[in-house]
Amino acid sequence: MLHFALGDSVVRSLTLASRGFFEAPPDGFSEVPLSRRVPVLVHAREDEVAALDDLEAAIAPFASLDRLDSQAIAELCPLLRTGPGGAVAAIADRTAIRLDSDALLQGFARAVRRAGGEIITGARIAAIGRDGGGWEVATASGERFAAPLLVNAAGAWADAIAALAGVRPVGLTPLKRTIITFDAPEGTELEALPFAKTVGDELYFAPESGRLFASPMDEVPSEPCDALPDEYEVALAAFRVEERTTMRVTRIHHRWSGLRTFAPDRHPVVGFAPDAQGFFWLAGQGGFGLQTAPVLARAVQSLIAGTQWPIADVEPSALSPARFA
Q1: Which residue in 64, 101, 159, 185 is deepest, having the highest Cβ count within 10 Å?
Q2: Is residue 16 part of a domain?
């Protein structure tokens, strides 16, 4: 999803600056649309209304919102529990968009190859060192690559890559998030449902390939790894679905986890390392990496190639790794 209930004003500015790319990508970038409209509904119980007020004020500069009462909530998302003990107020962004992550990734991969780049997979890094005026990277299979500039975009492994290169880590924390899929009640019009989220970080759910997916919005610290779901978080997702909606989760069809990696201030880390010439950070994109990817790519281009800085409301220093020095 591309929505503004995530992060703070920095993340929202990056998201807004990226939106145009998804709605009107460059010619030939993708044969299918990168996005489609899906409303985002952020709902609150009676004791959460003050938090909803604060979130509405924070999002208002970036998106047009509707304020909903219990009746309007039930009309937009009939699966939610409303009234006493349930949702009594909500905000809805009816212009939010759902992103086609595969189409986006494939489009960028084609762009890399068209520009003469090569994508090499299955190449575990064994060593990184300086080679004269540049960098040399050696893989576990013995391949070697050299370049004057090294971009560290290794996600959960970015601090480990920096340590291999003798560069000071910035303090990234990988956090595991769990997803389950399950059947919606019979007769549910899935395509009419919004992306529904609690105002606090407790639950979100939305349609997914003929079923529903849900997450308890867990953030479990983890070492960098190919994450696997734990039974506790899987059970927690099902419990919160039944607590916040009128549904019963009788069967979980699929479950999976992934790592969302954050810097200490939860802003991206984009810029040259202050302690190593030619070492460039692109990390800490948390749960908003997809929805901010286009403008962060342009920010990288600006800092490396000297093109115009693309984000009016965010200074380069706000993203620079030097802020952790």
Answers
A1: 159
A2: no
Write down the residue that tokens 């962004």 correspond to. 93
Q: What is the number of structural domains in the chain?
A: 1
> How many whole angstroms separate alpha carbon 293 and alpha carbon 291?
6
Question: How confident is the model at residue 132, as a pLDDT?
Answer: 83
Q: Which two structure tokens, joined as six digits, stand for 240? A: 């919160």
**Any domain includes 228:** yes
User: Cα 33–35–41 angle (5° rounding)?
Assistant: 160
- pTM given for the model: 0.94
Q: Across the strands, what pairs with 14?
A: none
Residue 234 forms part of a structural domain: yes
Contact status, residue 288 vs residue 304, Cβ threshold 8 Å: no
Residue range 165-186, pLDDT digits in tens: 999 999 999 999 999 999 999 9
- Which are the contacts of 99, defined by CB distance < 8 A and separation ≥ 6? 1, 2, 22, 34, 35, 290, 291
d(CA 77, CA 26): 35
How far apart CA 222 and CA 235 sit, in angstroms, is 19
Q: What is the CATH classification number for the domain harbouring 250?
A: 3.30.9.10
Residue 174 carries which side chain, given as an amino acid letter? P
Give the mean model confidence (pLDDT) for residues 3-8. 95
Question: How far apart (Å, rounded) are the C-alpha atoms in residues 223 and 227?
Answer: 9
Structural domain boundaries enclosing 197: 39-95+173-262
The pair of three-digit structure tokens given for residue 114, joined into one six-digit string: 């068209």
Can you name the residues that pair with 173 across neighbouring β-strands?
Answer: 262
Establish if 204 belongs to a structural domain.
yes
pLDDT of res. 269: 98
Whole-angstrom distance, CA of residue 263 vs CA of residue 159: 10
